[in-house]
Fold these 4 entries.
Entry 1:
Amino acid sequence: MSKKWIYLFVLAVLVVPMILTACGATEEPTTAPPEPTEAAPEPTEAAAEPTEAPEEPEEPEEPEVAAGPYDDVDPTGATVLWWHQHTQEREEGLLEMVTEFNETNEWGIEVVAEYAGGYGEIYDKMIAAIAADDPTLMPNLTVGYANQVAKYQLSDALVDMDYFVDSAKWGLTEEEINDFPQGIFEADVSPVFGDGHFRMAFPPNRSMEALYYNLDWLNELGYDGPPTTWAEFAEMACAATDADAGTVGYEISTDASRFSSMIFSRHGTYFLEDGSAFDFENDTVKETMSFMKDLYDQGCVRLIAERYGDQTDFGNYKTLFTIGSTSGLPYYDSAVKSGEQGEFLWGVAPLPYMDGGDEPVMNLYGASVTVPKTTPEQELAAWLFVKWFTEPEQNARWAKISNYFPVRKSAAEAMTDYFEANPVYAQAFELMPYSTYEAQWCACYEEVRRLMEESYSAILDGADIDATLAQLQEDANVSLAENTP
């Protein structure tokens, strides 16, 4: 991957404040100053000596740095229980990194990484632990999406991680902070808790929604590449559909992230910019649902038969397109290599976007890690592990293990060889500058996601689009009101 794209990532994904100062030289006079007409008179007597030496100017005092709440905490020997969701190769790589930290950290901190189920299972366990009001039932570090951790903080269950980040003793330097893309660094900050800047969690990685396409199949159908408009998508999908052969253009997942990505790709949204309300009745949402319903009725798209069934069918040359997370790249690669018709050329692209503008809009997301309230020693120890885990060397290593995207600029710059060896990963990474987010700012979003999925399914089953979206909007805004502190 060229450095051009890495620097584009650095400059475009992140909104990094810059101050440009210009120092102009003093302007030269246009003519020489006139010569004095006569010499200055000599002094008639020497100036009187001062009676005492002038006082030396006092050196300015260093500004005092306010002591942080963890400055006097000693994390030595603390044990950190980490609930995570990783399995298989990712878990193996994760455990190797945890072992390295345990053996090398100067405080003798021991991190115990425990698989606690998927995101939903971990969320349910956290809600139960919070309801029990017993810190001994809590992990010291856990994973969650921003909307999930916002739900935890409604019960005041989390540590504000700004205490760690801003600590003169334990925190990050300005240089380290600037090494994170601004949009990613601030993604887990909530304006509704604490003093209006409550850092609920910290990002170790990110991924995004993308269009997976079979390039060989597209070429067979007479197309040079993936669609850039939704009309092209429909044409290609229908061209690939053959009932006798069991092939179809696209397999639908009604997941809320697919729903969101299709709307974003049209340069639309379904919530107000200030987060004060959901808006599912706008024209872009209606057009998106109507478009997918029409394709579904034509038979050019069909519902996924089972979880991850679209990956299997993609590898078996049964579906031309799928839409999903770039974190699934290794699984698609495996599906293609083990497919019924042998390997073929494939890739990832932005969802069709030319209907709404000249640039794609990508749905960027990812779970972060958060520190529940337990003991000060364990809270600090958890942060010290997170700080180590997100350092550039470890961040690049984890990106290679997990196939997530790194969150440090310097980590990405160090991954040139990996990009070259994994061209589809590089292809996806190049889309990072065009990212936006779902309604993860809302503690209600877990419920709203479920409502979105139910509405999408109902529309495909024949429910009236306008009435369904009106009900979705009403229910979503009720949930928003109930989950706003």
Note: Residues 209 and 324 are 5 Å apart (CA to CA).
Entry 2:
Amino acid sequence: MRRLFQLERGVIPACDVYTIKALREIIAATCDLEGIVGYKLGAVLGLTYGLPQLVSTVREYTDLPVIYDHQKAGTDIPQMGEKFATICAEAGIKGVIIFPQAGPETEAAFIESLFEKNLVPIVGGEMTHPGYLTKDGPHIRDSAPIEMYTNAAAKGVEYFVVPGNKPDVIKQYHAVVARMVKEPKYCMPGIGRQGGDIKSAFEPLEGASAYAIIGAGIYEHEDIAAAAERFCTEVLTWE
């Protein structure tokens, strides 16, 4: 699999804003900062403007990879994988986050389709908020996330989304994934406004590549560049 990011550790601003103007402000303020490795676009901007226009906007400022998080892709029938991957590839997206909650057949189909379009699949299993698993309420089986991760690893996936505000489960998932993937890489939301921090999130990974996905902690700050730089400094100096 081709490498998505140039650094072993870094920060990915999550651009969960409403307007192109706000997106431009984030990119312009952060694209030259050491430690910024890419940008995550979500469904709010995607549904409002369309992916081609968004990627084109980012490209006015930087060649850093753009990741798309459909919030949540991988929850449809398997046949939708090819169509979804095609749209992302044609728009210039480089990495795609999926949470394959629709079962292993859908997971396999989406991963295969993304690989076929030369995209990097980034597979999540457990989310950051409470009330997601059965232990917190009758919804998704407690064992489902680990199955999503191991199924992805078996298909050749190297990038995974784990909840950055849950260090205990990060450790559990890494222990399993690291037995299947030689060099696993982790993208972690939940750091900042959702209660997670760099040290607690990165420490359980035992030196594996780690990337903090940070949204409101950057774009809602009065000084976007200063906020992003603080996170970057912490990531780059973490040992």
Note: The first helix runs from residue 20 to 30.
Entry 3:
Amino acid sequence: MRTWFQRLVDTLAVTQTEETLRKAVADLVQDLGFGGFAFLHVEPARTIAVSNYPEEWQERYLDGNYPAIDPIVKIARSRMRPFNWVTGNPRSAENQEIRNFYEEANDFGIRSGISIPVRTAFQYVSMLTLASDKSMLRLESDIDQTAAVTAVGYLHAKIEQQDRGVVRSGVCELTPKQALCLKWSAEGKTMRDIAVLEDMSFATVNFHLNNARKALDAGSLAQATAIATRLRLI
């Protein structure tokens, strides 16, 4: 699969929109023998999902907050390495909620697959899943972990870039340090926490946050994080 992941990276390099990206990845996934794919990135304030799964399933998954109960997502976060999976017999699931989830997934032809998680900024996780309607999954070769993680990391960056490109703000600009400190603040970290996380002094963190607040013409740090989030500066 090393060659396939390189093809994925090469293809992503020339896609300019989410629609062309979705079609390109879907074509590559089919070449590999899978029926569908899903890219998922979940944060408390937003979820990014790009997939060629049936529209009805995508809507159910996001509207029903399925990422919170999806066993594959939980495994991905705990293992943080590529892995194969099968839904198996839904009746053997540990509880009714997961049983219902597996039954719905099976109804939409999602019965087995490969999931590749990667760690992203601010300790969040993105994952790419290749799904099949087959009850058993047999790979011709092992997954090259380095190639897989590199490709999915590039996919995350490409989708993140396209997602942020939707909104352009000419109101102000933040320096990288200002944006970094403000993002950590938005994640609930104190200035002392940020100083430890980014190996800065407390005074330096305070300096960057204060300048960010001024740049955004905000009266408080809380207001600054709200404005920066709305303008998609962080």
Note: The mean pLDDT is 89.
Entry 4:
Amino acid sequence: MNLKHIYSPIAKDLFKVDSLLNESLKKTRYAAILELNNYLLESKGKGIRPALVIISAKACARTSSAVTSALTKIASAIELIHVASLVHDDIIDASALRHHKPTFNVKFGEDVSIAFGDYLYAIAFELIASCKNTDILSCIAQASRALCEGELIQVCERDNLSLLKERYLLIVKKKTASLFAASCQAGAILSQSRQLTQDSLKEYGLNLGVAFQIIDDCRDLTGSKEKLGKRPGLDFKMGELTLPVLNLIFQEPQEKKNIIELLRNQDDEKAFRSLSFKFLNSSAFEKTKQEAFAYIQKAKSSLGHLKDSSYRRSLSALADYVADKIESDV
């Protein structure tokens, strides 16, 4: 099942999000900023987070025109926060490609990219503030703080070869899953659903986000530049211990010394290919898949409080879509 089919119940809502993003990014009077904004609009991602906001809200109840207007703003804001984090991420990681195109830091320089990421955060919170909902503001502000904390912890722990799985999961929950969770929770808050439903959807988003990142880390080891839209092995080249590598060390203890040596040769393409081969041909690959699938199952189980609808089915299908990605590059 593809995203177009999964998003079909909210296709009109996503069109409104795209329209608002265009409007928000094109109303500047400054040509230099407009160039940046247009480049961003040309590099559209999968839109998972704004879709989660809308689907979660509509899975809870019928939405009024006032709620629909707020949904569009919140979904757009969360997408801007996500993109801002990617712009800053690419600077930190010295990434050259994203979505098959040069990253902002490559095309416009690091100084401009830092300021542009901040600019996107500002637009996002301007949209959130216009909804005049302090619960939504608190929800997204907390997620933004968690995202930044996750990034800081990850950067500070680079080259720490004693990193444990618990620390890896802490970083993933903060840096990636927090915004997934906030997307779902914000949608539930906007639909004025009961607390149990809000908590369940937040849990769904958190578990989906963890699975998403585990699978993304797997694909970083096993995928190709053509399928990923960026150079594979970036985590490896930055000296980061992701779950696939941690599992490889745990499952193949006799290889620990060799694996750590490969990690120390981060700029060696041959070393990366060797690590990728070891992972794909070890029990660590299956172990990592099963851990990702366990989070997918937890996410789907969290939907039990929702009535059956096309929106609930879309949430379940989105979890399956994420799970299928782990096999797509092998």
Note: Strands lie at 97-98, 101-102.
